[in-house]
Specification:
Protein-Tyrosine Phosphatase, Chain A, FAD/NAD(P)-binding domain, sulfide:quinone oxidoreductase activity, FAD binding
């Protein structure tokens, strides 16, 4: 039988999600009844509804009962209903939910009632035992009418996981897959509200007409590792003293270890007027899935006029992306012989073109080729789309700031970026709002059972998918070492990579670590010069590796450094 079952007693077994194709095998195995404890569509469009399962089960002579229980909401009332079904349904009975844990919790709670534990305090402690946790005992007053609520609050029925991962982006999916590859028995939950997963590094190519935007998105349900439980909800805060992640819907998810990787938030609200004009009036951004194709549309249609490209203060995702948008547009205009009629300007809030000096000479050659005007210490603060006016705050050498209005025909905006509010306002945050970690181990500075990686962690590396790819190995191995009481086997060298697409067909593959140290994967190729090999990596190999290796726990090209 394809479904892996756990036998709880002579009549009841539990398992994870059942599909229609599994039912024939379940009937063949001798099960007479099925109880579905998973709410319809909790697992997305790929999850069959209980009506579909019930119809197929009845055709095989299996009785079917639907008792949906949301994650974190196993109550005494639900437990009693579950017990009633076990009494009424012919056995053997198979109960299932997303992972089998809620069905197990329902059974355990009924057993606790049947056994009549000596005190309510013992009940709470025993009720949590199925999770293999040892939480502090929370006494429950005898005769309390709030018994089920207190038990649920104390134990977080159905959601006390070995590991909780906050964020279903590249870092979250990748580290979950790597952990399950190392320890398949781990009970891991991923908290992620979105039903879509994006390969964001290709959006610059989309904006340059070199990649199909539809190839950058997949259903979240298709990339969540099969052995992980997806909690499709938004995180709203952290209670690290009690090992809880708070959800926006009021639930709390318990963990033994926590991985924080919710990414970075695009703070469009920091630029007055820009949200009202995005996607029209010549205002675009490669930092959004729906806007990257508009960048290409604007580039193709612009024959003359003024094109502005902006870069806000750090931190941002991929520090080279703002100028990559400019280079690809300019390359198209050069090929179309319209560049001489277009005034191109790159406005950056920084004081240099790129933070790692080794790559600046090659980049400056392209700045000259495209006749681009560089304006440093210029931060976009307002956009009037209707009148096509961009307002910048420009700082001079003495620190004085003046506001300057600039007309445009095309405006590519890189939005300011900040840590998500639920992280920045939590006990996990550093002064800048990011999850405070030791940059070499990626373990939290104050809570040893918490790790962080990706754009949300405080490590001073470049915020790129390539950095997350290397950090995944560090976190997976160090977290397991912490779990097992071993010394950390790996340290992070700050690796990040920014494939700088300076023209269609050529890329400068900028790979570097802490302090700007060059860390080339292919040292025989000069990493500071543009080449076609790096373009093929960027446009062909890296997307394939992302979907088929990084998100599946296959750690190719992810060498790590042994700890000192």
């Amino acid at each position: 039988m394809n479904v892996s079952t756990t036998k709880l007693n002579e009549k009841l077994s539990v398992c994870s999600q059942v599909t229609i194709d599994d039912l024939a095998e379940i009937a063949k195995a001798g099960y007479k009844s099925i109880i579905c404890n998973r709410p319809d569509q909790e697992g997305g469009a790929t999850q069959p509804t209980h009506q579909q399962l019930e119809k197929a089960a009845h055709s095989l002579g299996i009785q079917f009962a639907y008792l949906p229980v949301e994650i974190g909401k196993v109550s005494m009332e639900k437990s009693e209903a579950f017990h009633k079904l076990l009494t009424e349904l012919p056995g053997p009975v198979l109960a299932f939910c997303g992972s089998g844990k809620r069905a197990t919790a329902l059974y355990e709670l009924t057993q606790l009632e049947t056994d009549k534990m000596k005190s309510e305090e013992e009940t709470v402690t025993a009720a949590c035992s199925w999770t293999e946790q040892a939480p502090e005992t929370i006494p429950v007053p005898h005769g309390s009418t709030e018994k089920s609520l207190l038990v649920t609050a104390a134990c977080n029925w159905g959601n006390a996981f070995d590991i909780v991962v906050v964020g279903g982006g590249a870092a979250g999916i990748g580290v979950t897959a790597s952990l399950l590859h190392r320890r398949p028995s781990l009970r891991i939950a991923i908290i992620e509200p979105s039903d879509k997963h994006y390969y964001q590094p290709a959006w610059t190519l989309v904006g340059g007409g070199a990649f199909d935007v539809t190839q950058t998105v997949r259903n979240m349900a298709d990339v969540i590792p099969p052995k992980a439980e997806w909690i499709q909800a938004a995180a709203s805060g952290f209670d690290p003293d009690n090992n809880l992640v708070q959800l926006a819907d009021g639930r709390a998810i318990g963990y033994r270890q926590l991985i924080v990787c919710p990414g970075i938030r695009l703070a469009w609200e920091k630029i007055e007027g820009v949200q009202e004009t995005l996607g029209k009036n010549g205002v675009t951004s490669n930092y959004q899935f729906d806007l990257a194709p508009y960048t290409w549309s604007l580039t193709k249609s612009l024959k003359s006029g003024k094109a502005l490209f902006t870069q806000p203060p750090m931190p941002i995702k991929c520090a080279g992306a703002p100028q990559k948008a400019m280079y690809l547009s300019c390359d198209h205009w050069l090929r179309e012989r319209t560049l001489d009629h277009i005034e191109v300007e790159f406005n950056t809030a920084g004081a240099v073109l790129f933070g790692v000096a080794d790559f600046v000479p090659s980049l400056m050659e392209y700045v000259k080729r495209y006749h681009t005007k560089l304006v440093f210490n210029a931060n976009l603060v307002k956009v009037d789309g209707a009148h096509k006016i961009a307002t910048f705050e420009i700082k001079d050498s003495e620190g004085n700031v003046t506001r300057v209005d600039k007309l445009f025909d095309m405006l590519h905006v890189t939005p300011p970026q900040v840590a998500p509010d639920f992280l920045s306002k939590s006990p996990l945050a550093d002064a800048a709002g990011f999850c405070e970690v030791n940059p070499k181990t990626l373990q939290h500075a104050r809570y040893p059972n918490i790790f962080s990686l990706g754009d949300a962690c405080s490590s001073p590396n470049a915020k790129t998918a390539a950095a997350a790819r290397k950090q995944i190995v560090i976190v997976a191995e160090n977290l397991l070492a912490a779990k097992e009481g071993r010394e950390f086997p790996n340290t992070y060298d700050g690796y990040g990579a920014c494939p700088l697409t300076v023209e269609k067909g050529k890329v400068i593959l900028a790979e570097f670590g802490f302090g700007g140290k060059l860390l080339p994967t292919f040292p025989l190729v000069d990493p500071t010069l543009p080449n076609r090999f790096a373009w093929l990596l960027k446009a062909k190999l890296f997307p394939w590796l992302y979907w088929n290796a990084m998100l599946k726990g296959r750690e190719w090209l992810t060498r790590s450094t042994a700890a000192n």
